[in-house]
Design a protein that fits this description.
This protein has two domains: 179 residues, Immunoglobulin-like, CATH 2.60.40.2540; 113 residues, 60s Ribosomal Protein L30, Chain: A. It starts with 7 loop residues before the first helix and ends with a strand. With 301 residues, it is α+β, with helices and mostly antiparallel strands.
């Protein structure tokens, strides 16, 4: 039968069936507000992957034909949710994150908009953080789909729609949450340049400065990519120069000894001392002298 000879009522019924199949994951092209290119994974192929270390936890779902949808948290940082596309499929512009019923249910209600966002034409087209990430996780646990839909704009390209399926999410998120509990409390950026301050004529650290040193030790023990730990001791200009040099040496060695006792190979550590030679503030004020009484710890990969 040629298309021109199909009765109108039969043609309309065929179109409706195609739209229903598309909403249940059967097609890549579905009816959104306009004809949109939809990317989702067949239910039989849905998988959630968990990648875990003390530096980063990732919970991701491969999305067929598109890339991945990812929950991620790095040590010392907030959790985020983002998309990663293999090629630039989502054009730049506005988009909406919606929640929809699971694909195995008969389609009925349209997806409910949750929040608007902005999409960039980049490998990571968008990301969200703060409480919205917790909301998305909670809704997936309830069995709802997360749907990201680009809004039609001043472009000839069709909108792109990415569907994240809730299937198998519960067991994967349990492993992901276990990983989150084991993350280091700080990131490399936070400890790679650490300055420890001392009271006058003392080589003992106050509680807050001691905690900073503990974080350095904790991170260096886990990151075998760190090849050198450089320690440099400094003082203010109060007192004789030879005495200040001895004080700077004592402070540097105190830090080095602590790191070795914490389990860091001494061959990775270089301790130096400079006395009052390199001030970073004026020694004519209490505040300036306090900044100069310091030991810097620098990590090199």
């Amino acid at each position: 039968m040629r298309l021109a000879h199909i009765p109108v009522h039969l043609f309309t019924r065929i179109i409706n069936l195609l739209c229903i199949n598309a909403l249940s994951g059967g097609l890549l092209m579905i009816a959104a507000p306009a004809w949109a290119a939809t990317f989702n994974t067949m239910l039989s192929d849905v998988e959630w992957q968990v990648d875990q270390s003390v530096f980063e936890c990732k919970l991701s779902q491969p999305v067929a034909g598109f890339g991945q949808a990812i929950f991620s948290r790095r040590a010392g940082e907030s959790e985020i949710f983002y998309l990663q596309q293999k090629q630039i499929l989502m054009p730049e512009g506005a988009a909406t994150i919606s929640l929809g019923g699971p694909s195995w249910q008969q389609p009925g209600n349209l997806p409910q908009p949750l929040v608007d966002t902005r999409v960039m034409a980049e490998p990571i087209p968008f990301r969200v953080d703060t409480s919205l990430v917790e909301t998305l996780r909670a809704e997936l646990l309830k069995g709802l789909r997360v749907i990201i839909t680009g809004k039609p704009g001043n472009t000839s390209r069709n909108p792109v729609r990415v569907v994240v399926e809730p299937l198998k999410f519960r067991s994967a998120v349990t492993r992901y949450q276990t990983c989150l509990k084991q993350l280091l409390p700080v990131s490399y950026a936070e400890v790679s340049r650490t300055t420890l301050y001392f009271d006058s004529a003392s080589d003992e650290l106050a509680a807050g400065e001691q905690r900073k040193l503990e974080w350095v030790a904790l991170y260096v023990k886990q990151d075998q990519g760190i090849k050198r730990v450089l320690i440099d001791g400094h003082t203010d200009s109060v007192g004789a120069r030879p005495t200040n040099l001895d004080v700077a040496k004592s402070r540097s060695q105190h830090i080095a000894d602590y790191l070795v006792a914490a389990g860091i190979d001494k061959d990775r550590i270089t301790a130096r001392w400079h006395g009052e030679r390199y001030p970073i503030a004026s020694n004519t004020t209490d505040q300036g002298r306090q900044k100069n009484r310091r030991v810097t710890v620098r990590l090199e990969r």
